[in-house]
Design a protein that fits this description.
With 242 residues, the chain is of the alpha/beta class. The protein is 33% helix and 23% strand. It has eight helices and twelve strands. The strands form two sheets. It has a six-stranded mixed sheet. The chain has a six-stranded mixed sheet with strand order 4-5-6-10-7-8, with helices on one face. The radius of gyration is 17 Å and the shape is globular.
C-alpha cells in the first residue's frame, strides 16, 4: 500500500490542495495527516474540512491542541498566540470537536505516525537534527521500526542505531534490520529555504519512503493572511520558505 503523508498544513489551503493533487498523481492508496492542520494560516475550516474528507486518519499537532484547549500556549510568542485565538473563533463546531478528539499517535504494526518526538507525544518535542535523534534513542526504550513525524517543518531521515545516522536521499529504502525516524516536512509552511510544499509517500511493499516537493500559489496564501489581519510575518515567510 502506498500512503501519502501530509503534516503541518497550518491552514494553508493552496498548499494542501496542491499536495493532494500531486499525491494522487503518485498513484497512492490513501492519505494521512500528522497534525497541525490549523495555526498561522487564514483557511482553518477549509483545511480541516479537506483533511477530514480525504485523509484516512489524522493525529494531533501542538497548534491543533492549543486551539482545542488541550494544552497551554501562553508561552508562545505574541503573533502565534493571536493566530491561535483567531483560529479558535473561526472554527466550526464540527471542526473544533474533531480537533478535540484527535489521537497523539496512530500505530499500524511496525509503523507509528505522530506529530513530534515519540518519546513523550504530549510534550511535542522537536527532532530536527542528529543530536535530537541521538538523544531520543538514548532515552527511549522501545521505538517502532519506522516512525513518521512532522513538527520541525523539515524533510529529514534518521537511521537509528549505533551510531545514529542522517540519511541524505529523496528516496530512502528501509533496511529491515534497522529503525528509522522520518520527518516529512511541512505542507503549509516549509522552513528549509525552499518555499515549495512538502509531502511524503510510504510504500510498504517496496519498503521505500519518498520525499516530494510541490510548487503552489504562495502569493495567494500570503494575501489571505494579510486580509485576515494576521501577522505579516506569517505571509512573508511563505515566500521564502523560512
Amino acid at each position: 500500500m502506498r500512503t501519502a503523508i501530509l503534516t503541518d498544513i497550518h491552514a494553508n489551503l493552496e498548499a494542501l490542495t496542491a499536495c493532494i493533487s500531486a499525491a494522487e498523481a503518485q498513484k497512492i492508496d490513501r492519505l494521512v495527516c500528522l497534525g497541525d492542520t490549523v495555526g498561522y494560516g487564514a483557511d482553518p475550516n477549509a483545511a480541516c474540512d479537506l483533511v477530514r474528507a480525504r485523509c484516512d486518519f489524522a493525529v494531533l499537532g501542538n497548534h491543533d491542541a492549543a486551539v482545542a484547549g488541550r494544552m497551554d500556549y501562553s508561552y508562545y510568542y505574541a503573533a502565534a498566540r493571536e493566530a491561535l485565538d483567531w483560529t479558535a473563533l473561526q472554527l466550526s463546531k464540527e471542526n473544533m470537536q474533531w480537533l478535540r478528539g484527535l489521537p497523539y499517535q496512530v500505530s499500524e504494526g511496525e509503523v507509528t505516525y505522530g506529530h513530534a518526538s515519540p518519546r513523550d507525544p504530549q510534550a511535542f518535542e522537536y527532532v530536527f537534527a542528529l543530536e535530537q535523534a541521538e538523544d531520543l534513542l538514548g532515552r527511549t526504550e522501545k521505538l517502532a521500526q519506522l516512525t513518521f513525524i512532522g513538527h520541525s517543518h523539515l524533510q529529514r531521515a534518521f537511521q537509528l542505531g549505533k551510531p545514529v545516522r542522517d540519511v541524505f536521499a529523496e528516496r530512502v529504502r528501509m533496511d529491515p534490520s534497522r529503525r528509522y525516524l522520518i520527518s516529512i516536512g511541512s505542507c503549509g509552511q516549509p522552513r528549509d529555504y525552499d518555499p515549495r510544499s512538502c509531502f511524503g509517500v510510504w510504500d510498504d511493499q517496496s519498503r521505500m519512503v519518498e520525499f516530494h516537493r510541490v510548487p503552489y500559489n504562495a502569493e495567494r496564501t500570503a494575501r489571505k493572511i494579510l486580509e485576515a489581519g494576521l501577522s505579516p510575518h506569517f505571509a512573508r515567510r511563505l515566500l521564502h520558505g523560512v
